[in-house]
Structure formats: C-alpha cells, structure tokens
Amino acid sequence: MAARVLPLALLLAGGVVFAARALGTGLVLFDDHPGQLYRLWHVLTRGPAPWAWQPGWWAGYPELQFYPPGAAYAGALLQRASLGALSPEGAYQALVWLAYLLPGLTAYLALARVLGSGWLALPGALVALTFSGGASGVEGGVHVGMVGARLAWGLLPLLLWLQVPWTHGLDAFTPSPRAGRAPWLAAPLVAAITLMHPAALPAAVVVVLLAALARPPRATRLGAAALQLALAAALTAFWWLPLLARIAHTRPLAWGERPGVDALTLALALLAVLALVRAVYASRAAVVLALWPWAMAAVTLADGAVLEPLGLRWLPADRVADGAVIALILAAGLGWSGFRTGARREALVGLAGVVLVVLAGLAGGALAVWPRPAVWPRAQQLETGLRLESLWNALRRAPEGRVLFVRSGVPLVYRGDWWRPHTHVTALAPARAGREIVNGTFTHPSPIAALVYRGDAGPGAILTLVERLDGASLFGRPLAALDAPTFGRYAERLGVSTVVALDLDLPRLAWLDASPDFERAWQIGFFVAWTRRAGLAIPKEVAPGRWRVALEGAPGAWAPARIAYYPLWRATRGGVPLETRRGDFGDLEVRLPPAGGGMVELVYAPGAPELAGVALSAAALVAWALAGAKVLLRGSSRHGAMDQNQPLMDD
C-alpha cells in the first residue's frame, strides 16, 4: 500500500504547491479565463440547454451549442453541489485547480495499473502534470484558459485505466478468456470527454478499439466496443445533433498551426519506441498503451493531410495532436520505467525519472515545474490596475444599445507583439455591467464575430486569431482606414451605442472623433469611450424565450431587429406571425406588417433537432442505467455464490 500511496502523495504535493503559487484562491482573470467564467455564468443564469440564447456577446448567440459545454457544466455542477457555499467565481477557480491536477492524477492511475507499481508510474504522471505544450498543457489549458481542452485531456488516461481489465479478458466481476463485455462506465466517460472537447474524441475512440483488439474473440469485442461508442454518442446527442443540424450558423476556428516536434517530444518518442519493445514481453494492456501514440499519430496525420485540405476544419490537427501527446507521454512512462522487479529498484527508477523531469523543466519551458509570479498575475492586481469597477460603472450609465470594444482584450505589458500577455476581461461586461457587447472576447465562431474580424458574416472558416487584429483592423479594414459612414452602417445594424478603445489606439481613431453620430464621452485609465448622441433600441427580454423590440420602416419592408439571426427565432405582431430572414450582416430581419413599424415580439424556442437530441440522450441514459443495474445484480449474485463456496476459517 505504501508503494502506491507515497508516490501519489509526492505527485499531489508538487501539484498543489505549483497551483497554490500560480493560481492561489483569487479569481483568475488572465487571457481566456474571463470568457470561460462567463460561460459558466451563462449556464447558471440561463440553464444547461446548449441552444439557450445568450444575448451578452455578438448580438446574441447560442453560446454552448457550438462550443463544447462540458467545462461550463462541470463548473456549474460544482457551484450547485456546494449549496451556495461557492460563488460562481469560487466554483470556476476550483475547476481550474481540478483541470491543472487532473492529467497527473489520471496518468498515475493508468500507469500504476499497467505497470503494477506506483513508483514506476510516477515519472510519466509528472510529465503529464507539467507538460506545457499544446492547447491542453499547462500553458494552454491552465495559464491561457482552455480549461475544457485540458479536462478532456486529463480524462483520456482514465479511459485507458478503465480498459485495462478488459484487455486482460476480465468481465465485470469474473475472469473469462472469452469476455466480450466492454467496461460499463466507458460510455459515459467517452461522453464526458466529448462534451469537454471533441478534439480528444479520436484518442478516446482509438484506445477503446485497441483494447477491443487486444485479445480474441476480436469480432465480438469490436462489436461490444462499437456498442459502447454508439451509446456514448447517444448520450451526447442533445448537443451534437442540433449542432450538426445548425452547422451553417457557425464558423470553424482554423487559425492553429501545424503540430511540430521539439526536443521533449523527440525524447518522449524514443522512450515510446522502447515501450514497444518492452510491451512485447509484457501484458496485453502494455501492448495497447505502446500502440496508442502511433495509432494517434496516424490519425493526426490523416486529419491534417487529408481532411483539412478538403475543408473539414472542425477538428483541427493541432488540437487532435493533443490526444497523441498524452498517449505518447504514457507510453514514454512505460518505456522509461519498465515493469515490476524489486521494491528498491522501482523506487530508484521512479525517483530518477522525477529528477530528470524537474531538471528538464528548470532548463526550458517545455515542462512547467515551477511558476514565475510575473507570468501568473493575480486577479486583484488586474482589477486594480485596469480600474475595472470604474469601467463597469461607466458602462452601466451608457446610452441604450450595445457596447463595441475595438479590441478583443487588454494588453498587460507595453510591447508591440500580438502574443504579449493580455486579458479578455471585457468579456465579463454583460455579467458585471449588464451590457451586451460586440468584440471584447477571444476568437469566437459566431457569424457576427466573422463580420467584425473580416468584414463579412458569410461562410468560411475564421483563419486569423483575434489578437492579431487588435489595434490593427476592424470589420475587415485597417483601423486607421475605416471611415465614419462605413462604421456607422455596422453600428446601426448591430445596435452599437458605445465604443470603447484603448488610449494607444487613439491615433488610428480620428474618424470616430469626426463622426456625426458619436462623441467622446469619458476616459478611465487606459479605456476611452465614445457614446452615441441618441441611443438605439435593441431587443429586450420580457420573459424566458420572449423578446420585444420597436422596429421602424414602411409596410412590407424588411427591418433589422438588431439581433443575430438564428433559425429558432419567430417574430409576431399582435399574435400574427411575421416573416424573418438572415440579413447581409448576419443579423435577423423581420418583414413589417401592413401597419408598418411598431413593437414586435420575438420568440425563441427549440426546434425538431433540439428536441430529438434530448429524446435520444434521455433514452440512452435510461438504457445505460438499466444495463448498469443488470451488471451490478449479476455481480452481486456471483459474489454471493462464491461466498457460499468458501470454507469457514478456523478460529
């Protein structure tokens, strides 16, 4: 027992010390974290339905329909489970801690089960905990704030851990050389991985299939694996079915770079090759682990070389590569540690691996073994330095309409490079100031976001990271070359009544000072604002799923409703349905009745794909629960029979 507990305690101690110094207990506001917190707030205030309308960003958007909702669900669940003891901010901070620690803990569990030793599992688990590259490493998943990607990454070793008994031919409770029943918990775990981030799904599918192929009868086991994967798909149908049905109303984010190979990856690959050799003389589970990264390398190559050139950019290769990386780390752990021998040798091998990991981390940035305080700014520092409370108060008093932020975020250092430390803290304006915003968030898949980034809301992927556009362009035009009439057309359609820029953008905003519609209103710290001389009416929510807006125009004319288009919108006037369509700006347009302009009611409700997805997921949940009850009852009866056959022990 000590050989399992002590290395785990060392791993946890190192992780907790790092997290305490880097994250602390205050709210994380660096980079993408404010926007992720806002999504959690969205679930708490508007419910878990992925198609629920979120009016706060981009003239409205079904925020969690086209973005993996798992992390927001997990944070909301933490907050609700605490019975109010945790605020939304506290629940989010706890979620970030969990996201940081999870890959190390699950990698330890998986390697300890395959290798049979906690000490031998320790080096690979430490690499999984401290690996800094990709969207799921410490840098992307914790520092930058891609929390869902890291949570999915951390669940992948747990799926391997779950498959190990099956690779050895173990049924739920009894060994059987012809066992064909896949782990009962595999389906909900694959579903959780999908909801956290579907880019991790290929790695999950590959490890399940490898486990099925680990022993005969392979056809039967492949059928069982396919059933588990189909059940996982059905459990998540409430999200992906309407996503696929409405896919035309989002834009792929395809700004990532091709996966590269650095010195650390090369070292891990060499150890993974050694794992292939060692696995031949070891268990079937070791063979599955040793093959996993190479199968994932093939999947990643096919994605980047075949699917993306065909225009299928929904699972970018640089994100799919993260699944190959966690498999590579685990296989490298197998290659380094080997298998059980003597207790002393295992401890020496494990501690030697830990020393190498720490030295590698101190020598370069590929492994995050110790945080530098300047790189992990505290929330209180940002709130005070940016005078955020004063900003929120000023926005509350702005004229009716939306707030347009010229930039997606606020730089935290005075450098010219676009990748300098920054925060998208303005994404919290709807929650903190009660104002709907345009821009002011990270790169987003909304058609209205595409309009702001490139000047059109039409089809096609978003190919440029928004930080590259900050202070350089707006609506697809160089910021200095934009003119007041052009900007006025966009502002009118989007219901913009307030524009907020940074003082360093002032030399490129002379046209805004000359605008007949806007006037400079105030400056708070780095923030400079212009307000419209007369506010603009935008739709107001009067009841759940019901908005009202005053429209102007001649009878029969198409009038902009100043809200983003989505096919779930219905418009009525006095109970009479009105025609709707998608405008050129990606906004909702309503054909006015014979009476002309006036108050129009907008109704937002789920359609057939949304309801069908929920029904399919509910049916799958019932089927999974019944299957689980059957497994538990069968196991209980078998254990009872075994107990009856046991001889009584002498006193």
Tell me what you see in this structure.
The protein folds into three domains: 2-51 and 67-247 and 264-373, no CATH class; 379-532, no CATH class; 546-604, no CATH class. 51% of the residues lie in helices and 11% in strands. It contains 22 helices and 17 strands. The strands form five sheets. A five-stranded mixed β-sheet has the order 4-1-7-9-8. Strands 10-11-17-13-14 form a five-stranded antiparallel β-sheet, with no helix packed on it. Helix 9 (201-212) runs antiparallel to helix 10 (218-235) and helix 10 crosses helix 22 (608-645). With 651 residues, the chain is an alpha+beta fold. Residues 171-180 and 639-651 have low confidence and may be disordered. A hairpin with a 2-residue loop joins strand 10 (540-543) and strand 11 (546-551). It has helices spanning 2-22, 33-46, 70-81, 88-115, 118-130, 138-144, 147-167, 186-196, 201-212, 218-235, 237-245, 263-280, 284-307, 317-337, 343-363, 379-386, 388-396, 429-432, 447-454, 484-494, 510-513, 608-645, and strands spanning 402-405, 410-411, 422-423, 437-438, 473-474, 477-478, 496-502, 518-524, 527-532, 540-543, 546-551, 558-564, 569-573, 576-578, 580-582, 587-591, 598-604.
